[in-house]
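Following up on my earlier thread - several people asked me to post the actual chain instead of describing it. Fair enough. Here it is, all 556 residues.
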Amino acid sequence: MLSEAWAREPGPAAERHLAQLEIWPVLLRYWRLIVAFTLLSALLVFGLSYLQPVRYRATAQMILSDPRNAGVFRDQSRIVIDPQRYVRTQAQLASSSPALLRASELIGGRLGPSDLKGRVSATASRDLDLITIAATDTTPSGAKQIADAVGQAYQDLVRQEVQANAAASIAELDQARAELQARIAEIESAIAAGDDNSALRAERDAAAAEVVDLNSRAKQISVDAALFGSGVQVFEAAELPGSPAQPRPARNGVLGGVLGLLAGCALAWWRGQRHRIAESRHDPAPVLGAPLLGTVPDLESVGSQGKAPALTQPGSVAAEAFRFVASSLESALREHEATVVCVTSARQGDGKTVVALNVAAAAALGGRRVVLVDGDTHARGLTRWVRLTDAKGLTDLGNGAAPEECVRRLEWGAGLLAMCPAGSPVDPGVGFFHSSAFRRAISVLREQGDLIVVDAPPTLASADALAITGKSDGVLLVVENRTPLHTVEDAGGRIATVGTPILGYVYNRVRTRGSRYGYGYGYGYGYGYGYGHNGGPGAEEKTSRRRRRGGRRVSG
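Reply from S.P.:
Thanks for posting it. Predicted structure:
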C-alpha cells in the first residue's frame, strides 16, 4: 500500500519517473523530427561549404642542417644547444614578415606580404629537423608557387645571415691579424736596431704563430659558411595538388548530418521528457505519487446519454466504471479517515464535474450519506445542471443560512444524493473560500452526511482550488486521457503545498474500441484488480472534450 508521505512528494517521484524514460521509444516516437534535423543540417552545411571559395593546398618540406657543426656560428657564440628549439625558431623565421616579403618578390608581387600571411604556415617536426611549409591559393599552380617561394625565401634569408656572420667574423680576425702583424713589425725593428734578446724573439715567434692561426680560422669560417649555405640539407619542392583542400561539401555535409542527428536526438529526448503525455492509465501514478482509483470511458464512446449515467443508466458500462471508482475511493477514505473529498483537475475541461457527480451518485447508491457540493462558484457547472442558479447554496450556508435551505435532494436514486449548489454570487475580491465563512459552511456540511464531495475549480486555473483543498480531508484528482505529464506534476505540486493528501486519481475520457473497456486497478494497487469488459492499455488512445447541457429536477 502506498504511504501518505509518498503521496505528498510528487516532485521527486516525477523526476524518478522521467529518469526511467527509455530512450529508444522516445527516439522512435520523434523519428520524423530527428530525420528532419539530420537532413536539414546536412543540406545546410553542404550548401554553405559549396558556396565557399575554392582553395588548393600545397606543401614543401625542408630538412635543416645542424648549426652546431658550423664554425661561423661558433665564432659568433651562437651555438644552438637544443636542436628542437632551433627547428621551431627556424619555422617561425620561415613564416616571418621578412621571409614573406622575399617570397612576394619571388612570385612577382602577385600577392603582398599581408596577403601571404593568411595563406602560409610553417610547422616544425617534433622528432626530425624538418619544417613543413603549407600554402593555399585559388589554383593548384598558385599554391605550389607560394610554397616553393616561401621555402626559397627562407633559404635566401639564412644564406644572407650566414654570409653576414662569416664576413663579420673574418673582419674581426683580420683586425686581430693586422694588430699582430704591426706588433711583429715593431719587434723586427727593435731587433734590427740592436735590441736583440730572447724575449723579443719569443714574442715575435708567438705573434707569428697566432697570425698563422688567425689565417687558418678565417679560411675555416669561409669554408663553413660555404658548406652551411642556406642551412637546408634537403629541400623538397611542393607537388601540384590534384584536388581542392577546401571546401569539401560532401565531407562537411556528412559531418553536418552527424551533428544534426545528435541535435535531433537531444531535442527528441528533451521533448520526450518535457512533453510526455498520459497515454496509459498508469502514467500519472509515479508523477503524482498517488494510486489509480479507476478508469472512466468517454461517455459518448460507450453510448451513455447525459452527464449522470450513474443515476440515469445504472446498468451501463459508464455507470459500472464510476461504481468502481467509488469502491476504490471508499478504501482510501477508510485509510485516511476522510469525510470531505475535493474533486479537482489540473486544467479546465478535464471532466472533474462529471466525475464528481457520478462518483457521488455511485457512493450514495452504495449506502453512503453523500452531499455533493458545487465549489466552483465561477463555472457553476453542477448548479446549472440541476437548474438551481437562483437557489441558496454554499455561499449562503457560510453566511448563516439554514442547512435545509441550502441542501436539496435529487429525485434520482430514490433521493439518496443530496446537492448543495454554489449559492448566491459573491464578489471575487472578498475571498469567500479563504474566509471563516467557508470553514463554517464545511463544518455544517459535515453534519449533513458522512461523505462530502466538493467539485472544486481546476488546480492550475484558480487560487480557490487550493483554499478548498486545504479545508478538505483528501483530494481526488481527475486526469484526462493524453494530458501532458508536466501539467499533472504541476497540479500535484500545488496540492502538496497545502498538505492535503491525494487519495488517488481518475483516468478520464478513455476512448474505447467497440465494447472493449476495463476499469483499471484499485486503490494503492492493493485492493483488487480491475474487472469489466476486456480492458487494456490499447483502448486508452483518444479523448473528447464535447459537452452536453441538460436539466435535472430536484426536490427540496
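The chain has three domains: 23-51+247-273, 56-236, 290-533. That should answer part of your original question.
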